[in-house]
Amino acid sequence: MRDSSSAAGGAVMRLAKLAALMLAGGMLVGSAQADDRNLYTTEELSAIARHLAPAAVVPGDATNKFADDRRAAALGQFLFFDTRFSANGKFSCHSCHQPAHGFTDARAVAKALAVGTRNTPTLLNAAYNHWFFWDGRADSMWAQVLQVIENPREFGGDRLAVAHTIYDDDALRRAYERLFGKLPDLSDSQRFPAHARPDAPTQSATAREWSAMSAADRDACNRIFSNVGKAIAAYERHLVNYDSPFDRYARALRSGDGPGQSLLSPAAKRGLKLFVGRGQCELCHSGPNFTDGQFHNVGLPVRAGTVLDTGREQGIRELKANPFNAAGRYSDQQHGPNAKRLEFLPAPDAMRGAFKTPTLRNVARTAPYLHDGRFATLRQVVQFYADGKAASRGKRVGEREGTLNLVPHFTPAEVMDLVAFLKTLDSTALPPALTRPPAQP
Ligand code: HEC
Ligand code: HEC
Asked: In testing the pocket of ligand 1, which one of 88, 96, 145, 370 has its CB within 8 Å of the most ligand atoms?
């Protein structure tokens, strides 16, 4: 009895081993069963492949001669963590763009000197954006920086204080002059007051000091100011990462590598299929950064107690009026394609309520969500799409009228699948040397 049963047991074991071997062999050669390519349509597979990292490095920025200068990036990294450009000496870029939170601040809306109205976006892969801010009111990374420094709710600083900070600090001044050339004699307080900037309240001392300066000195200070932006932008261009479970899975799909295809859970795979297929998310969240870089009104209702944020409408007006835009005097390519596109912007009021499609990379780490941080969780965002609230409002503003009506309703299980997929877009950490302040500029 014992003998025969053990003999039978041995046979079962051998059979199981054989089956396991066959399975493993099948996986290695990419057998039909183990190949996830069967889960997706040809169109879905191409869409998935289009989300893979771009082959090229960060696209150039000809409006910033220093964009790819290593020394500029080093100076920029130092300044990114420097709190001296803020009026009370307490805030730096890092205060709101923290690596631990995917370069955001984990708040619904930003807060420095005062509470703002918008949610802090990630800086990871932001160098691939065509426009900056939710409303795209900056057309380069360097011009974006300048607005933070003089924003009364953020740094509350001014360009003269920035120039003096650099001039008065030997190490900073040397680093600056090595790159950008000699500073004017900023110790001359007749010519260069401690604080001055345009666009301050007309009667304020900073505005009066600014208008009292000579045109040439104002220009020199604008130049210093824009160079600071260019150095910080050179640093931000290194904050790039395309290594997430999704990317590893998508590469495995492309090459038919069986084991690589087990990197996503079944729920995440169903979510991915919905995302690139029936869910139509692809219409706007396309390409390597899961954004078309354009502006859409997704039909969010105006929340009680808040005023309508017109988004891109106001963004276009401010962009055109900004002396630091790509066509302006401080741009290093005033007649290039970036300057040219300013001539082809849509009429502002056609873009009322439209906001830039945010990247979805690292989205699990960048809660809360949307331009005003109204949703605390990814489930809530996807539920918003699922409810068809957007579709029921019907009218969207923007060039692709009606796109959102195509977003279908999702079952509760499908909502969870989409969320599971979005969580696979979390990339590995950047090299620590990039995420801490260097000892010196
Ligand atoms: C008080 C918090 C706060 C501080 C400090 C801050 N930011 Fe931001 N940042 C934000 C918010 C909020 C937005 C979006 C604002 C908007 O769209 O109107 C933003 C937008 C950006 C963007 C645009 C990203 C995109 O995809 O459009 C970049 C780049 C950026 N910040 C870099 C910086 C740099 C560099 C500094 C330091 C000079 C800085 N930020 C300081 C909160 C902050
Ligand atoms: C018509 C274009 C469009 C379509 C289609 C679309 N989105 Fe969006 N998505 C946007 C825009 C624009 C925003 C920002 C809206 C705002 O803040 O006002 C956004 C925001 C988000 C956010 C929040 C990200 C953040 O950092 O705040 C998530 C998550 C998201 N979308 C996921 C999806 C999913 C999943 C689908 C498919 C079911 C989808 N989107 C379909 C344009 C679109």
From this structure: 96
